[in-house]
Amino acid sequence: MSGLRDRLLRLRSSQAAQAERMAGMVERPAEAAVRDEYAQSNVPAHEHEHDPQAGAEDEAGAMARTADAAELELGTRSTACSAAAPEKAHRAGEASVYNAVDADNEHELPPEWGEIGVRVVASTEGEFLVRESRYPLAHRHGVHQLAELPVVQRALGAFDQAGSVDPDGANLLFLDLETTGLGVGAGNVPFMVGLAYLQEEAFVVEQMLIRHPAEERAMIGYLCAMLPSFTHLVTYNGRTFDWPVLYNRFVLHGFRTFEWEPVHIDLLHPSRSIWRNTLVSCKLSHVEEERLGIMRSDDVPGSLAPAIYFQYLTDGNPEPLLGVFKHNETDMLSLAALAIRFGHFLGGGVGTLVPVPNEAEELLRTGLWLERMGKAELAEPLYARFAEHSGASAKTMCLLAERDKKCGNWNRAVLLWQKAVRASEDAVWPNYDAHIALAMYYEHKTKELERALLLAERAFELADGRHGGLRPQGKRRTELDLIRKRIDRLRLKRSKG
Amino acid sequence: MLNRKTLPELIEELRDNDNVINWHEIEPQEAKARPIPDSVDDRIRDALVRRGIQELYTHQHSAYEAVNKGENIVAVTPTASGKTMCYNLPVLQAIATDETSRALYIFPTKALAQDQKSELNEIIAEMGVDIKSYTYDGDTSPTIRQAVRKAGHIVITNPDMLHSAILPHHTKWVSLFENLKFIVVDELHTYRGVFGSHVANVIRRLKRICKFYGSDPVFICTSATIANPKELAERLTGNPMRLIDDNGAPRGRKHFVFYNPPIVNQPLNIRKSATVEVNRLARDFLRNKIQTIVFARSRVRVELILSHIQELVRNELGSKSIRGYRGGYLPKQRREIEKGLRDGDILGVVSTNALELGVDIGQLQVCIMTGYPGSIASTWQQAGRAGRRHGEALIVMVAGSTPIDQYIVQNPDYFFDRTPEYARINPENLLILVDHLKCAAYELPFKETEAFGPLDVKDIMEYLVEERVLNRNKDTYYWANLAFPASNVSLRSASQENVVIIDQSVTGDVKIIGEMDRFSAMTLLHDEAIYLHQGVQFQVEKLDWDHRKAYVREVDVEYYTDANLAVHTKVLEIDRTSARKMGTIRYGDVSVTAIPTIYKKIRLSTGENIGSSPIHLPEQELHTSAAWLEISEADPQLGTKTLEQLLLGIANVFNHIVPVLVMCDRSDVHVVSQIKADHTGLPTIFIYDHYPGGIGLADDVYKRFDEVKAAAIDLIRKCPCEDGCPSCISSEIEGMNAKQKSLQLLEGL
């Protein structure tokens, strides 16, 4: 069979050579060289980058120490605090019995795991590791304090549009996976499952790690047992990623009858609704930095997590995994902080518990989102502020005007349109939506044909001006045609009238 | 036109044509039928009766009975013999009996899947039963995908979709895999060569997943006539098969005519161009409003014929009634053409072998082939496009000047008596196998003891562990890589990505008009190439090789382009050797490098070369298996120059004969000669598989060399030319008794 191998290696090397040659043809070597250089100097560059933030690093160190302290404390109370997950107590109990019976060192972790602070959980299905960090509710993560979480729990009930769970009995579970790949295919394995929940007077972050894909079954079994005690699942992009990935694992490991239908709060969706144009990216790490005052230092980017895990699988050295644990842990805390933020939004805390957004568009979009969540009464003050805001763009004004029109609030709609029309006159790339909307209003609502016609004609000028004399084609052409039709109709009506 | 002639009249006229060198009549056949079995559900029976089906043809009956007994079957039937009933009946019966049953239909192309869905849904509607059949392909909208996965009784898809979307996401298809009773593989004969080798591995993965979910589906395959349907089905599915070939469908009389264009230059044996004759014949039929299909071998040829015919009948018929059809047209365009043919709105179609497959275009009256399609099976498939159940049909094969065309038309017995070709696959091609083992490990962890075809794959798995693609723990290999392996594996061709053809004739209205595989693009879409699409000429303004895009602009010029490819071969390893009288035949691994060199501009009207320019594209390297002939004891009096030309001539003959004998596409196997091979310095002819790692074609040539040799000798000997012509050892041989010398060389091997 070694012949098979040899042939394979030869075939492979020829393909690699081919790729190199191709790269040469398209003049890529420069780019490749840069990449290599970057790879070599990666570590020092990183350090350098973080130098100016030495202060921040110290702070983080302090926080980590707090967490360590909490963990130490946990060691003594670990059995007592399993109330939230009764099954867990059962499993843990089983593990300890198992440990006690054969007192060989099979379940004892090698010393290099010590720094990471994990323990072995064993069941009949096998073993895996758990790292538990316990934060007192007084802990502050960015601008929010964990103690705010129990307060907003009720307000978060707004996400449960079907009303399936009694908000007073809500039991939130935060979830974030670190996986070996992208996408939701059957081969993408969650090697680390981060969970967090409130328990007594603490916020517990429980992170599971499989030392090997073979341990996954035990971890999934454990999850199946503990998940159903929670009523809400809180994630970031969990609807399209974390949950489907996890669900695959239940199927693959034969827990096909497992059923748990929590209220799933995927915070990516409201984040996008509110910040899509205000923030450059709606990635959690960006949102937390820009809006929750969270500064990470020494963070291992999530995108590196798979590579670190594969390296660990190859060399067995767990040390770099600590970075992944910490990254995931911060994610869990940020998720909680973000839930607090949205909880305040829904609970009417804008202006009191959380600051009023500075930017006009964010004000408006927060209002629109609240209205969609069934909190129209909370949206109105934001709209009012927006209408007064000096930085509102013509486009966003039209957005609110459109909303007002639907609600029959014509007064403000007309005001906004008029404002938007004025704003367009000074714009480099003028928007003429307001002209059209206003022309419609004058034509159909107040029957002021003359005013309507003037606006329509101005809209045509603006639209036509955009093309700078070029012959318009396709979509632009139909836009122009539509305006032209409107003008013709108005002229006709006027002549008849 | 008042005096429109009928087909029988035209057939009679054709009988007197001097160029017709063989006339073969296929007698009509009465239907052989049996009553619908009692076990068939009443709702199905009623639906069939309402559709005018009172009995089953014998093959349909046998298929139903065998599948009911739990046997895997392969049904071999000619075009339009009601083969779909062979699988639809048992599948619908099973679902009617047990609502939870599921079936997976695999068609080689999306178009066929669409056709099948419409047909199936008609029967289901007649039955009045709630059976859901869906197609699942790239066009399926995300909103209904969920419904397909959960509730589709019959899921209709293609191998590519199975490979890259369904299998890697099998956890979403639990209800299908848990209840899968049948896997239907239609157009089995198309799964050969590289594509077939890939699909065999995809099926291994499919069976693995079925096993995981506890199902063990029965395979129902259908195939056009090939020599080894049972063997192919067994290799492809890994299951024992029962062959069903008692075709009971009726057919009308068919006339199969071989037409050889007249000789215009006797000593050089140069004949009138087949294309010109085809144009003329097609015109005669189309003028009389007889629905005609013209097959041509290349895309370029399709476009050339199309534009000529459109020109010839312009005054009598609208250009819309004669259309082209080939790969590279967009799906919407193809659907429109298919429908036009069925409805009769389109009178004539010029097609590549794309219409060989069971795409439903109804039955036409006349089929004209521009040259021999390359294999017996393929010829019968194309011929099957003409012929209705009642009434006459005419098939005309117009021979080209290539050796094999001439051989076929002059030896009609070879064609009519011979069994069709073997369809070969090599699922054990290392590169293909490795790719699919990766996909398999991604889908489910791989046990050390697990089998994946006949090879012991443990060695490969260990290699993948070293490559850090897999991770091993105890007796199991786990996927341990960031990548999604299926996305890096294309089932269709050696080149992974196609070149997209972008028309930028109209600024601001840039659109994609087609695509082409990378290898063909090297010679057809290089900078300044003239590319023909739907009869319109485009010039390639820029081939962006790196991004796989060719930018073209419409032009109107009086020439086409023809590119040369320089090929160089190096031996890496010799696996087998057999000594011959004057040389040696070997088999092993070679490295082939190919680089396009220049292209010529050739005037359309006269065929003269009006200039050439270099092509700048990167070299392509290929490691593959090859069979080669070393001539160690050539007659020293021959001289190097002469010997070199003789080798070229023999290579030319092999190039035509080998694809016929091993049944593969012409582009799957290549033949090159070298006067001084790198490793020995000896005159050598290489025959290699045009796919990395090889797909077993060269292996076959090595094993059956005597057969290949005999066919080559026969071809040269029977060619009517005096001393070599394009139809045998090519035209560029000086007066030196080349034919005789070629034969001597061959006989010494």
TrEMBL record, chain A:
<feature type="compositionally biased region" description="Basic and acidic residues">
    <location>
        <begin position="28"/>
        <end position="38"/>
    </location>
</feature>
<dbReference type="Pfam" id="PF13482">
    <property type="entry name" value="RNase_H_2"/>
</dbReference>
<protein>
    <recommendedName>
        <fullName>YprB ribonuclease H-like domain-containing protein</fullName>
    </recommendedName>
</protein>
<dbReference type="InterPro" id="IPR012337">
    <property type="entry name" value="RNaseH-like_sf"/>
</dbReference>
<dbReference type="InterPro" id="IPR011990">
    <property type="entry name" value="TPR-like_helical_dom_sf"/>
</dbReference>
<dbReference type="InterPro" id="IPR036397">
    <property type="entry name" value="RNaseH_sf"/>
</dbReference>
<feature type="region of interest" description="Disordered">
    <location>
        <begin position="20"/>
        <end position="65"/>
    </location>
</feature>
<feature type="domain" description="YprB ribonuclease H-like">
    <location>
        <begin position="173"/>
        <end position="339"/>
    </location>
</feature>
<dbReference type="InterPro" id="IPR038720">
    <property type="entry name" value="YprB_RNase_H-like_dom"/>
</dbReference>
